[in-house]
Write the C-alpha cells for this entry.
Amino acid sequence: MDFDLDETQRELRGLAADLLAREAAQERLEAFERTGAAYDAGTWRALAQAGLLSAVLPEDLGGAGLGPVELAVILREVAAHAAPVPAYASLALAAVPVAAHGTDAQRALLTPLAEGGTVLTGAYREPGPSGAVATTARSDGGGYVLNGVKTFVPYAAEASVILVPARLDGAVAVFLVRPDQAGITPQPAATTEPLSRVELDDVRVGPDALLGEGAWRTFRRSAVAGAVALASGAIEGALKLTTEYVKTREQFDRALAQFQAVTMQIGDVYIAKRALDVAMWAAVWRMAQEADDTDEILAIASYNASDPVMKAVYTCQHLHGGIGLDVTYPLHRYFALAKHCGHLLGGAEDQLDTLGALVAQEA
C-alpha cells in the first residue's frame, strides 16, 4: 500500500507552500498581528486567486473536485506556515459537508468562498466530549426550532453562515444558521483565530436550512481530519524551526545539536511527528475510499495529535530555552496552534474513549 502523494497532490502542496512562504513570512505575520484583524484578508484572497480555496469544491461550482487527501495537503501547509486564514473553518467545517449534501441553493453559497469573498464556518464542539451533540431541533410550522450551545466556533461573527449539528427525531442533522440568528459571545483563544460561544435560544430556521441525509457523518469526519491535518502542519513547522535553532545555537563553544541529550530529544519530536503523519494520511485516504475503519483511524490520528504531538511541541519549546517563551519568536504560533487542535479534538482521554468504543462495536 502506497501512501505517497501523487503528482497532482505534490503540485498542490508545492503551490500552497510557495504561496504561503511569501504571504505568511515572519514580517507579514508580525504586521498582521498588530492590526487586530480576525484574519489576513490579503492572504485569503491570494489563496483564492491561486485556486487553493476551490480545489476541494465540486467541478460544477468551478472547483477542481478534489477530496480529503487534497484538503489535508492544503490545511497542513496553512498550519506549517502559521497562516492566519479561516481555511479550516471555511473548508473542513463548511464547504465539504455543504458540497456533499446541500441543495443547489445551499451549494451556491460556496461560489463566493472560491473567490475569497466570504467566510463560512461550522459548530463542531459543545460542552462535553468532542463530537457529542446535545443541541436539539424540532419541526415547527414547516421549519425547525433549534436550542443548544456550541463552543469554540471559529470565525462565528465573521462567517456568512454557520453549520450547526442538532438532534432531530433521534438522529443528528446539520442546519445552516446565520450569525445574526444566534447569540455570539467571544471566547479565549490560544491563537489569533477568533473563537465564539454560540447560543441557540429558540432559533427558527426554514426548511431550506436543513442539509441532506448523511451530512453529520461527513461534517464530523471532515472536522476531525481537518484538525489533525492542522496539528500535523504545526509540529512540522515547530520541528523545522527547532532543528535550525539547535544547529546554530552554541553552548560551551559547541552547537546544541552536538549534545547527545539534545539529539535524542529532537529524535523524539521527529518520531511523534512521523507517527501523526502516518495516521493522518491513512485516515484521509480511508475517508476518500469510504472505508469501514475510517473513524477508527481518525481516532488514532486524533490521539497522536492530542498527546504525543503536544508533548513534542513542549520539547521544542524546552530546547529553545527562554526564547521559546517569547511571543516575538515564531515558535509560539506553532505551540498555540497545536494546543488549539488538541482542545478541538477533545484531548487524549477523549480519543482513547472514542477508540475503545469503536473497537468494542467490532467485537
